[in-house]
Amino acid sequence: MATGFDQREGFIWMNGEFVKWADAKIHVLTHGLHYASAVFEGERAYGGEIFKLNEHSERLHESARILGFEIPYSVTELNDACSELVRKQGLQNAYVRPIAWRGSEQLGVAAQETRINCAVAAWEWSSYFDPAQKLKGIRLCMAEYRRPDPLTAPSRSKACGLYTICTISKHAAEAKGYADALMLDWRGQVAEATGANIFFVKDGQLHTPTADCFLDGITRRTIMGLARDRGIEVHERAIMPEELEGFEQCFLSGTAAEVTPVSEIGPHRFVVGEIAKTLMNDYYAIVQPKHAVAAE
Fold first, then answer.
1. Cα separation, 119 vs 78, whole angstroms
2. Which of the residues 30, 140, 200, 216 has the least number of beta carbons within 10 Å of its own beta carbon?
3. What HEC string does 17-72 produce?
4. Distances in Å between the alpha carbon of 5 and those of 13, 52, 123?
5. What is the 3-state secondary structure (H, E, C) of 102-161?
6. What pLDDT is attached to residue 290?
7. pLDDT digits 0-9 by tens, 52-107
8. pLDDT tens, residue by residue, 203-218
9. Which helix (H) or strand (E) covers residue 81, if one does?
10. Region 18-38: what's the mean pLDDT?
11. The CA-based dihedral angle spanning residues 61, 62, 67, 71, taken in that order and rounded to the nearest 10 degrees
12. Cα dihedral sign for 219, 283, 276, 98?
């Protein structure tokens, strides 16, 4: 059994200080645990440098604002904490997890008197999906749960509570032998996978759902920029499930997923084609040049 995340070595940055990993604790009556009043980021370090760190720190602040609280550390302070933690942990290729949450001073739906806590952890990271399957294209099923109407949930925030349906859907997919699940939105339109945005290719052009009820991923925007740099036309639009039959290629994008080709979504099949491979290679080239060969 792998070592639990509560039993690792090193340090975690917590409320302005580096504390020993085992000492980074909160009380069981913390508001963030009971009411999901917490926001987080997922970041990747390549060669010891965190990719698009400032954008992640800015988004963490924005996520907190949407949930109605203010992080007591500036974007610059968060950037410094993340970078210093990666160095202090002696990490090169790593996953970095900043998180901010309401504390234990008040427990109830109302929580104006709670302290806003903030922490950053970092650990060695390899691949979100099975590397052996990644270049062949992973298999997705359809999720039972849907992304909610933005009038019913803070969908533009990377809020912990929004990931409950993602965990349920991911577990259900893996129990059926799939790597992940495709989620529709409340209108029945294609939305995203459980933790990554999705792209499709048809006739040499890129199609991706409009991010109006789910997170507009930092990697998503990076991929769209890379595609346009190559002269690939990009369409952000509503995509209906019945359109899946007509797409030729499909891939996921995200900090954890990077660029991951998809070979199957339910009854629909896709090839791991040149556009997916090219954008995968282009992405690796900007985050870690020496890694680009792996995508060829």
1. 9
2. 216
3. EEEEHHHCCCCCCCHHHHHCCEEECCEEEECCEECCHHHHHHHHHHHHHHHCCCCC
4. 15, 25, 9
5. ECCCCCCCCCCCCCEEEEEEEEECCCCCCHHHHCCCEEEEECCCCECCCCCCCCCCCEHH
6. 53
7. 999 999 999 999 999 999 999 999 999 999 999 999 999 999 999 999 999 999 99
8. 999 999 999 999 999 9
9. helix 75-88
10. 97
11. 10
12. negative
CA–CA separation, 181 vs 215, rounded Å?
16
Q: Could you say which of 158, 176, 202, 290 is catalytic?
A: 158
pLDDT at residue 292, rounded to an integer: 41
CB-CB contact of 169 with 296 (8 Å): no
pLDDT class of 243 with cuts at 50, 70, 90: very high
Give the other-Cβ count within 10 Å of 83's Cβ: 18
Q: Identify whether the C-beta of residue 26 lies closer than 8 Å to the C-beta of residue 117.
A: yes
Contact predicate 157/67, CB 8 Å: yes
Assess contact for 121 and 89: CB atoms under 8 A: no
Q: Please check whether residue 197 is in contact with residue 220, taking contact to mean a CB–CB distance below 8 angstroms.
A: yes
Q: Which two tokens stand for residue 177?
A: 């032998």
Does the annotation mark 158 as catalytic? Answer: yes
Q: Where are the domains of the chain?
A: 11-124, 131-295
pLDDT > 70 in the chain, percent: 97
Q: How confident is the model at residue 246 (pLDDT cuts 50, 70, 90)?
A: very high
The answer for residues whose C-beta is within 8 angstroms of residue 130's C-beta and 6 or more apart is: 138, 179
Q: What amino acid is encoded at 46 in this protein?
A: Y
The CA–CA distances, whole Å, from 114 to 9, 161, 202 equal 30, 18, 50
CATH architecture, range 11-124? 2-Layer Sandwich (3.30)
